[in-house]
Amino acid sequence: xxxxxxxxxxxxxxxxxxxxxxxxxxxxxxxxxxxxxxxxxxxxxxxxxxxxxxxxxxxxxxxxxxxxxxxxxxxxxxxxxxxxxxxxxxxxxxxxxxxxxxxxxxxxxxxxxxxxxxxxxxxxxxxxxxxxxxxxxxxxxxxxxxxxxxxxxxxxxxxxxxxxxxxxxxxxxxxxxxxxxxxxxxxxxxxxxxxxxxxxxxxxxxxxxxxxxxxxxxxxxxxxxxxxxxxxxxxxxxxxxxxxxxxxxxxxxxxxxxxxxxxxxxxxxxxxxxxxxxxxxxxxxxxxxxxxxxxxxxxxxxxxxxxxxxxxxxxxxxxxxxxxxxxxxxxxxxxxxxxxxxxxxxxxxxxxxxxxxxxxxxxxxx
Length: 366
Known about the structure:
Residues 1-22, 341-366 are annotated as: Disordered. The chain is α+β, with helices and mostly antiparallel strands.
């Protein structure tokens, strides 16, 4: 595979990230700001056709799972760690199986992955058109990469510690999303590597934990997701804005196209209001759901990073937050996010538990 076609007007055309080198070193070594906020313009995003790779997976995901040395389900509800494989060695059927596993388990983890940023981009591009963030810092020649970077200058870093789904205000927010951490904070006792864990929560499990009456009500609702505050902050802090900021209406409950399961789809970062409800009532409902996400520990998995570990999660069916407990130490990783379908609710879809129970009953009758 090769890299996607680069936008024509990227800044710093003289710069190229060398293969096998972290941009954390190479960009600054070239005398450029990192992450880079040099302004450039992109066309506004428009709806594109999308077919999830997980739809082509084997029902048992046998191509992938037969190649691993171990499979560890980290909690009953969410999170699976695979050992014994390198992502760069996977063939297309194995990638399809991986997409289906991520769709089912919410997030899949792999340690000790030997891939550079170019290989990460190439791998992620198999799953869909790569998202370029409207205002976040980038690598100058690789705009699809969102550097996850905090150091001694991140004095307000704790303000980012909010449960969210990435850029849910987009017309087609990301689905499968990939983060590789290459530099971890030495924030432990005696300068040991510690801190900067990430927590994910299952939208499937949280949704099915709600009462049937509340679920039925939520399925009638839509919510406004907004990128305006993020855009205003960028302009206020001398950042850059690459596209016209948008607000988008999405269903409060959406259906995953691979699993067919319903999942809660609101988040504290970008969901601003419930459409058609009095704001006071809508805000109370949203706050209740946000608290369920944050306090539902049985629906969460906490991941302790190691160098070159990778997390691949489904941004449609999970929420996540990074733990900012390492100031003023350095933490750095690279995230790439393929866009997925426009969120929708299939009225015939089921909760995860309902679907699995139905499958078990069908198997008994065969």
